[in-house]
Amino acid sequence: MKITHAEVFVGGPGKNYVTLKIMTDEGVYGLGDATLNNRETLPAQYLTDYLIPCLIGKDPMNSEDIWQYFYRGAYFRRGPISMAAIGAIDMALWDIKGKVAGLPAYQLFGGKSRDGAMVYAHATGSDLEALLDTIEHYQSQGYKAVRVQCGIPGMPAGGYGISGKNDDSKHFITQYGTLPDEEIWDSEKYLRYMPHVFEKIRDRFGPELKVLHDVHHRLTPREAAAFGREVEKYNLFWLEDPTPAEDQMALKLIREHTTIPIAIGEVFNSLWDCKDMIEQELIDFIRVSVTYAGGITHAKRIVELAAIHHVRTGFHGAPSHSPISMAAQGHLNAWAPNFGIQEYLVLGTPECDALFPSEHRCEDGQFLISDAPGLGVDFDENEAQRYSYERRYHPVVRLEDGTMWNY
Ligand code: CS2
Ligand code: MG
Known about the structure:
Largest sheet: 8 strands, parallel, barrel
InterPro entries: D-mannonate_dehydratase-like, DgoD-like, Enolase-like_C_sf, Enolase-like_N, Enolase_C-like, Mandel_Rmase/mucon_lact_enz_CS, Mandelate_racemase_C, Mandelate_racemase_N_dom
Number of domains: 2
Bound molecules: D-mannonic acid, magnesium ion
CATH class of the largest domain: Alpha Beta
Helix content: 25-40%
Number of strands: 16
Protein name: D-galactonate dehydratase family protein
Order of helices and strands: EEEHHHHEHEEHEHEHEHEHEHEHEEHEE
Radius of gyration: 21 Å
Organism: Halioglobus maricola
GO molecular function: magnesium ion binding; mannonate dehydratase activity
Shape: globular
Strand order of the largest sheet: 4-5-7-8-9-10-11-12
CATH topology of the largest domain: TIM Barrel
Structural class: alpha/beta
Pfam families: MR_MLE_C, MR_MLE_N
Strand content: 15-25%
CATH architecture of the largest domain: Alpha-Beta Barrel
């Protein structure tokens, strides 16, 4: 079996999905997702200019060798652009492998360890009342876990993930302007207010609800340690990205002061970015995604290392990931002995379902994987013609005096 050609499509309903399609001489094709949020053209170009030419003529069943060829062969290794591009190829090759075998991808990893994988939704409120209402809404839909982000009194944009416009549908990150929005951040106001938010959530919803919170890299290690200790009593499922993720050893200080579960890793691109914190057991959940961390082959390696260090999975699932990478994660989640939770926000709009038809579904707060061969997601190229690339940015963050801070 040989790869004959491959194509990249950029665009989608409200998103710049980067979709790779790899064709073979036997008519079987595979699909991968290289969407690097708000930098989408870069992995697309990297695929077209450098990787696809090397794929032609290769046997798609040798996914390990092809992965090593692109990773070791690049010389300038790692980084989000090249790992998203390699990741898309890798997903597409597992898709082909599954289709050839007539098996869903999870069967190729070792079968199912569970029927449904618990997901969490984003509950966001520009103020506490709005947040509590949103949590109630998700709970009524069957969700057992929610990520809670709340507007902070006195902070103009209200904190990470809050639009400040009292409109939950707009809370998310993608900006449509020609230049990035600017947000203001104040750690002191945040640290003063958030414990009160957790207290009110527990008062209203009781102990069962799984409550997650994303600090989005905004605190210093000392602040995060003190915060974690203060909110321990509210029994969070996790505290995400308390400090900037590139400093693996910052977590030591946090660990010395609190037992709050820590989740980190959505910006990591390889095992090397998280190896020390996993081996030293400084985290509880690893947040990599199959897109940014080099596809199924490499993400699986990270999951296996995590498993022997009591670290569970919590794959990144922001809406920037297309249904293809969400399916790839769904297959890993079905198999992983150390599955924890899945962030899941592909809310199945009719346009998205038309572009990426699949039988995977989300019910009662669980992702249910379909038994279709491969990844179980298709791509409608006619639908794709409706969309094209539109430049977008994440916001940037400043402190009140103008100092740049971490988005
Ligand atoms: C966020 C991300 O979902 C999350 O946990 O931290 O959505 C993040 O802001 C985006 O993926 C950035 O592209
Ligand atoms: Mg996050």
